[in-house]
User: Fold these one by one.
Assistant:
Number 1:
Amino acid sequence: MNAPLPTPFFARPAAEVAADLIGCTLTVGEAGGLIVETEAYDGTDPASHSVKGPTRRNASMFGPPAHAYVYRSYGMHWCLNLVCEPASAVLIRAIEPAFGIEAMEHRRGLSTRHLLCAGPGRLTQALGITGADDGRPLAEAGFAVMTAAGPVDVVADRRIGISQAVERPWRFLAAGSRFVSRPPTRDALPWRVPR
DNA sequence: AACCCGATTTACT
DNA sequence: GTAAATCGGGTTA
């Protein structure tokens, strides 16, 4: 059935991995769900933390693939990325909650279902991800991404919250999902359509 | 200063 | 229901 994604899956350009992750299942401890929104960042990318080379914060982006890069955003949220090729990673922006929902609701405080994991900060709060998870390898017990159950209709759009390289269509969404942080814009591109 | 954001309020279709 | 405005708040380089 759903096998864990192997390390070579991640050892590719982040934009490819980001698109292919849509529809896969993220598991953190007892909770998880279907990945419905991602963004790619790489070493040639002015919007990426890695563009100026390694620093203490972004060290994980230069480490092995299939590991977590977790950083603090705006002083109060954590953001979860999965490392791909050197200096690149995929930001996990939203999942459709599938299991461990009570645990996630408890960590988030009462929040409506479609907002439980809709956004990078909400998602890490729901899953209990913090800076302590930076550098953590996938496939460690209770931390995994599983293959998609079936083909998923994916669209590509502009990334959110950046001021550099805004035109790169490196945000990927499950078409029609109600669990994304923001719906696609008018100029979102069809990316991969199941046949 | 700038930042890969979220919760809340206020205002509109 | 979307859209804009506002504030909160740590860390980076």
Number 2:
Amino acid sequence: MNKLLTRREAEYLKVAFDLSSEKTSVGSLDIANRLGVSCASASEALKRLSEKGMIIREPWRGIRLTDLGLKEVSRIIRNHRIFETYVYRLLSVSLDEACECARRVELHLSDKIVDSMCRILGHPKRCPHNKNIPAGVLCCVELR
Amino acid sequence: MNKLLTRREAEYLKVAFDLSSEKTSVGSLDIANRLGVSCASASEALKRLSEKGMIIREPWRGIRLTDLGLKEVSRIIRNHRIFETYVYRLLSVSLDEACECARRVELHLSDKIVDSMCRILGHPKRCPHNKNIPAGVLCCVELR
DNA sequence: TTTAAAATTTAGGTATACCCTAAATTAAAC
DNA sequence: GTTTAATTTAGGGTATACCTAAATTTTAAA
């Protein structure tokens, strides 16, 4: 039972997370619509995510992210937004391109690299799109 | 006919490139040995690489990278080494970790981002392992 | 309360990427 | 010319990811 998420599974997890803050109950149909995929595909993907311990499925009640799932999705979002902010601010790359590249590398960045970028940026709270940047578990520690 | 290489195909292409500078003739067996894979798997992978226009296969004569293949592998190697050098030098990350992460993101970095890192580093000729860094097609242009 | 509608899952199929072993082929070396 | 070595093909296996159609379950309406 492999813990690592595939690119696509991460996509499902991110959508599940996003929808969770928009609606009280999130079902496979919501996720299928958002991803432009059939209900059956979404259902399968969610099953795999729950097998990997990322979500809890309660059919007709909606899904819930587990602590592991929340940790994972936060890490991915943090990776994306710190990388994007860094590249946009310090490498003079357009926001579109920074975001696009961040999407491609977000799964593959290491915590240390992202924390280092974060430190250099002065631990920003928001990305250039003005979205929240989750804190790094070990980042900022030296400031306390 | 999709032009983009998969992670694994890029691995095969890199090995093909490396071996080409070590031996006069590179066959599927050489590549299979280097990657720890059966001859049959290597043969298949090389077939796919030739369908994507990256190499020319001349059985019992060995393979040759096409111009496209050389361009592609140079881009990947450049991405790896510039990223690794940048992260090592400017983000205070260990060389092992920089290299490991570079391996994971090398396929996904955009030229603009890599060129920007390259400019900031002063267009280095070698990575911290002292390996050659291929020039970027559009990098350095403003210096001429 | 029963039934119809909506949400969801399961079953069965397709495609792609990898990998394997065993068998067939082809070139090179003796 | 045969044998040996390299290579490819054939046939299978697993995993991811998608689909449609059918079955299931819940909710809501008549």
